[in-house]
Amino acid sequence: MSADVTVSESAFIEVDRVEKVFDVRRRTGFLKRELRRVRAVDAISFRVARGEMVGYIGPNGAGKSTTIKMLTGILTPSGGRLRVAGIDPSRERTRLAHRIGVVFGQRTTLWWDLPLIDSYRLMHRMYRIPDGRYRENLDRLVELLDLAALLEVPVRQLSLGQRMRGDIAAALLHDPEVLYLDEPTIGLDVVSKARVREFLRELNAERGTTVLLTTHDLQDIEQLCSRVMVIDHGRLVYDGALSGLHEAGESERTLVVDLERELPPIEAGEAARVVRVEGPRQWLAFPASASAAPLVAHIAARYPLLDLSVREPDIEAVIAKMLYAPGSSGEGSPERRAVVPGAGGS
């Protein structure tokens, strides 16, 4: 999608050449300061249809959280046009608040010293949720997110995974039409991540809630989103399927194999290559767009296998390889980034 695209009036989230510039002062000497303009978001354009689940990813400092804050009305864009459900977030923040839910993985909207249920009661009043709807939503969220045993526990005593589930419930009590998730599974154990992902899938399927997800965990994207957008240095450089991102970045997953004894490097032909060997443990790299099943079957049939695991590629590595691979126009300088075909950046 081109940056010059005319944003459709039917789109639920509309972002048209939006930018955000911060003025930063830094000390350059005794009693001397220099004013520097930092362009956190640089003329990005995209649209999200009602009911879509979209991954919004990129390296640290790429502009993801700044975009989310503009979409919620916390920050005002320096330029461009932005609408959520037809509303300008920065001009009608209070009106928009009743139609969106937000979860920041490293911050909580819950009251720290109060039992979890008290936070929900306060939100019941703040959002003026009808009593019947509040009870119905609360009962459903408590059941799906397994919160029954936690309602009387002060928030400060909850584990990170418990608090995250509590935050997600709080963001959904008022039936928002769109949910912004900023690192919702950060620091969670495997069981908590699986529970949160399953809940989000059900929410989207049953209620048609639009979800915009920022994360560093590719499994979040793979299990939840059919579409992914990549932002780098404030510019949208990819917008499409996750498989296309892997192909653009030529990314690889890693199969970690534990054998019964130390052996020479595993021979897997063109399917994979051994990148590391330590005693009976070997690491094999294979294309992220390929299934691990044939490779696992090949190894299990020919080698004395004890255990194995698959490690997903790091998002920063995928993006770095995509943008700065030898031969790309982005090589060597962040100011000369390769724009992937189909991207929304300019």
TrEMBL record:
Topology of the protein relative to the lipid bilayer: Peripheral membrane protein
Subcellular location: Cell membrane
Gene3D superfamilies, alphabetized: P-loop containing nucleotide triphosphate hydrolases (3.40.50.300)
PROSITE patterns recorded: ABC_TRANSPORTER_2 (PS50893)
Highest taxon of the lineage: Bacteria
UniProt keyword list: Antibiotic resistance, ATP-binding, Nucleotide-binding, Transport
GO BP annotations listed: response to antibiotic
Cited Pfam families: ABC_tran
A cellular component term, taken from the record's GO annotations: plasma membrane
Span of domain ABC transporter: 19-258
Gene Ontology molecular function, alphabetical: ATP binding; ATP hydrolysis activity
Leader sequence segment: none
Protein name: ABC transporter ATP-binding protein
Taxonomy of the source species: Bacteria, Bacillati, Actinomycetota, Actinomycetes, Kitasatosporales
